[in-house]
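A note from the maintainers: we've had questions about how concatenated examples are separated. There is no special marker in the raw files; a new sequence line simply starts the next protein. For clarity in this README we add a label.
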Amino acid sequence: MDGRNHSTVSEFVFLGLTNSWGIQVLLSVFSFLFYMASMMGNLVIVVIVTLDAHLHSPMYFFLANLSVIDMIFCSITAPKMIFDIFKKHKAISFCGCITQIFFNHAAGGTEMVLLLAMAFDRYVAICKPLHYLTIMSPRMCLYFLVSSWIVGIIHSLFQLVFVVNLPFCGPNVLDSFYCDFPQLLRLACTNTQELEFMVIVNSGVISVGSFILLVISYIFILFTVWRHSIHGSFKALSTLSSHITVVVLFFGPLMFFYTRPSPTLHLDKYFAIFDAFITPFLNPVIYTFRNKEMKVAMMRLCSHLAHYRKIS
């Protein structure tokens, strides 16, 4: 269908999650609390890693950058959703929708590569400890970080370039609270089967492939350590458990969203809430409460603050 023969859609309207006033109030409180907790938790990690010299290592360099990405990721959709909950007309401009999609996928692609870099870091630390500082040099860490952002931006632009010029002539209603490729493609006034397949390949296959690669790498690390020492394998499992948990939380919703053609389940919206609010909140919780060095660093920071407060 030729989009030039139809009026151009200037905005998209979100249906949101529910029409029930009581549930909307609960969602607003829930969303606001988790958003603030996510921002504060990740900010604490960034501050602690930056200020504590004991944490100036590749592992915590990646962790701090992961927290920065989580803060960006949850700020892309969460604030608008919180403000839109009590609005009757929940709308976003066409440019705003495209911008939201771009930053969502850029941040998601960047985090995907960063998690792979963190897995490589753990492999070198556990399997090649004598060469760790040589391999994971500051230059290598910076290379991983820059590469992750480049891959994330390219990943997002590759899909967006095909969608931005699609004809949208109505309807303009999205059964969601944020913009994403699968929902947007269903509103295009043209056949989008090839584009839907492209999204599955680009986002779905890449996320599944990255997840499988990460799982294999962690299994390989544990098997390598187990061959040398059973006690060492338990210690390695304890070290890797935080990383494995974060990987499952991150890739679980992604694989659910992007491995199915034309998803229409209402369950998608609740998985999206988990991805937008709960995962960025759980990441700092997992890395702080399950990491001895982070807990000690937090205690050091608190004691320093208390000392300065006494002096002042």
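[label: protein 2]
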Amino acid sequence: GNVKPYDMLEIIERIVDNSEFDQFKQDYGKTILCGYARIDGWAVGIVANQRLIAKTKKGEMQIGGVIYNDSADKGARFIMNC
């Protein structure tokens, strides 16, 4: 069916302890959210598709859920850090 855009950050903030989500490269590769948090006290790294439409610094529109080069690069670096 037709999935409406939604803010994955809101969902993450409801799941993690104290709604604290420390984002990795927040302003880069916006179609993927990466960051550190705690769930039930456990340190976790979270990688999630961001379903909102985003704009790059160059003003290009990116469709939520699509993994563009910048998002793929960000996700790969974050996973290596974890």
